[in-house]
């Protein structure tokens, strides 16, 4: 169907959302990307639309490089360019989508919540640094589910499949980052010079 014909049929936001859902079902009929915690019905079409065919990526590292979540030294600043944003490499749309997915996933998947919690509490990372690490894990999961052709299953530490409510209970019990830690990380940020 031509774009002009499609646009002519879209009258409301609801029509557009239905059309996007139909296109997503065409690109990912099993809903594999949707099975990953943090990736919802709005982010999944964005991710799959940008990535297109997973076969063009030969490894998880290749996919992470495309997404721009692990910066090269020239992309991320350093001593000579302190205060630069985390990375300038990669596709901005996919980085934003993965960042949003990571923020949700850390609240719904115990493995990702544990990673976020450990980075914030033990390693002393800031919120954005910890989210970027979670986003990298999500990229690995996207690669894995699309390559294997099987949906992702949320599991506990023992490897047992669990429900969303069980996952949230585990996170609340074990992996909640206190406000005092968050406030401390915010106060330790390097101030940007004008």
Outline the fold blueprint:
Blueprint: H1 3-9, H2 13-27, H3 43-51, H4 60-67, H5 73-76, H6 92-105, H7 110-121, H8 127-148, H9 164-174, H10 179-187
Helix pairs in contact: 2-3, 3-6, 4-8, 6-8, 7-8
Describe the structure.
This is Transposase IS116/IS110/IS902 C-terminal domain-containing protein. GO terms for molecular function: DNA binding; transposase activity. Pfam families: Transposase_20. One of its GO terms (biological process) is DNA transposition. α3 (about 45-50) packs across α6. It contains ten helices and no strands. It has one domain. By secondary structure, it is mainly alpha-helical.
**Low confidence ranges:** 76-86
| Helix fraction by DSSP (H/I, runs of at least 4) | 55-70%
Q: What is the end-to-end distance?
A: 51 Å
SS field, number of helical segments: 10
Return the average pLDDT rounded to an integer: 81
Q: What class, by secondary structure content?
A: mainly alpha
Number of strands: 0
Count of structural domains: 1
Work out the strand percent. under 5%
What pattern of helices and strands is seen along the backbone?
HHHHHHHHHH
**Main pleated-sheet profile:** none
What does the overall shape look like?
globular
Radius of gyration: 19 Å
């Amino acid at each position: 169907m031509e774009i002009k014909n499609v646009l002519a049929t879209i009258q409301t936001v609801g029509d557009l959302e239905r059309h996007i859902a139909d296109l997503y079902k065409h690109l990912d009929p099993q809903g594999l990307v949707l099975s990953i915690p943090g990736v919802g019905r709005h982010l999944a079409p964005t991710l799959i639309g940008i990535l297109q065919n997973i076969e063009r990526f030969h490894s998880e590292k290749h996919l992470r490089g495309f997404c721009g979540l692990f910066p090269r030294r020239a992309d991320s600043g350093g001593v000579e360019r302190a205060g630069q944003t985390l990375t300038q490499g990669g596709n901005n749309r996919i980085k934003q989508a993965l960042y949003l997915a990571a923020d949700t996933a850390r609240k719904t998947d115990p493995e990702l919540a544990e990673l976020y919690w450990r980075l914030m509490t033990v390693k002393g990372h800031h919120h954005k640094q910890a989210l970027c690490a979670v986003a990298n894990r999500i990229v690995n999961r996207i690669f894995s589910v699309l390559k294997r052709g099987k949906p992702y299953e949320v599991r506990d530490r023992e490897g047992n499949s669990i429900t969303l409510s069980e996952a949230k209970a585990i996170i609340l019990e074990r992996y909640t980052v206190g406000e005092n830690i968050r406030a401390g990380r915010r106060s330790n940020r390097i101030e940007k010079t004008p």
